[in-house]
Amino acid sequence: MTGWSIVTPVKPLGQAKSRLRATLPAAVAYFSGPDPLGALEAPDETGDWHAEVALAMALDTVAAVLAADRVDRVVVVTDDPVAAAALGALGAVCVPDTPGSGLNAALRHGASVAALLSRTDRRGARGTATLGADLPALRTAELDVALRTVERLGVRSFVPDAAGTGTTLLAAPGRTPLNPAYGPGSALVHASDGAVDLASGGPEIATRRVGPSLRQDVDTAADLAAARALGLGPRTAALLASTPSVFPAGCAAC
């Protein structure tokens, strides 16, 4: 039986994760060891280490999503050629952000691409979901549980981030419109628009709780430390292991 299409946006790496850049120091040592996913060369001396972090997180996130039993396809919307090459090598379908009108327009574009591909090969027709590229601790099993819950409910649903204000997953089963409304306070906006909060624990969701790795996105150094406590994916873990200055001894966020 067919599975889900997942749409993941990736900003140009040099612009990605501005809040993380503000709270995470520039590493003095660049990753130069074995590449766990075999996607990229190490950056040169003029490279952007924060961009490497953003790419590592995206690679770990997309790799986990592609491994999910209930996922047929990942559509990545990005204008970054390095990210497109690396994520495409993992098996994602990468398309440019042709609307160029912000995050929600990019997600709608990705969903349209996913729908067009599904009409061609019938893969990904169970539903369409959006997932951020900043979930480096994501566990495949936790994503599968959430998607199964949406299938059972049969209605548009979402997973709030660890802070409870943002949205990490927005899922629309079948041909239900996705209607993404990302931005400040998106969890409340999605709930107000009728989407079911899968982390609410309400009586209509008699299932296991939403796994923490599905809620732990990374916007700040503290978020990255929380994700590390859950267990990072191989590329992000290797990158941070090679740069101990990121989490110095006594770091409050560690």
UniProtKB/TrEMBL annotation:
<comment type="pathway">
    <text>Cofactor biosynthesis; coenzyme F420 biosynthesis.</text>
</comment>
<dbReference type="InterPro" id="IPR002835">
    <property type="entry name" value="CofC"/>
</dbReference>
<keyword id="KW-0342">GTP-binding</keyword>
<dbReference type="InterPro" id="IPR029044">
    <property type="entry name" value="Nucleotide-diphossugar_trans"/>
</dbReference>
<feature type="binding site">
    <location>
        <position position="186"/>
    </location>
    <ligand>
        <name>phosphoenolpyruvate</name>
    </ligand>
</feature>
<comment type="similarity">
    <text>Belongs to the CofC family.</text>
</comment>
<dbReference type="GO" id="GO:0016779">
    <property type="term" value="F:nucleotidyltransferase activity"/>
</dbReference>
<keyword id="KW-0808">Transferase</keyword>
<protein>
    <recommendedName>
        <fullName>Phosphoenolpyruvate guanylyltransferase</fullName>
        <ecNumber>2.7.7.105</ecNumber>
    </recommendedName>
</protein>
<keyword id="KW-0548">Nucleotidyltransferase</keyword>
<feature type="binding site">
    <location>
        <position position="183"/>
    </location>
    <ligand>
        <name>phosphoenolpyruvate</name>
    </ligand>
</feature>
<feature type="binding site">
    <location>
        <position position="167"/>
    </location>
    <ligand>
        <name>phosphoenolpyruvate</name>
    </ligand>
</feature>
<keyword id="KW-0547">Nucleotide-binding</keyword>
<comment type="function">
    <text>Guanylyltransferase that catalyzes the activation of phosphoenolpyruvate (PEP) as enolpyruvoyl-2-diphospho-5'-guanosine, via the condensation of PEP with GTP. It is involved in the biosynthesis of coenzyme F420, a hydride carrier cofactor.</text>
</comment>
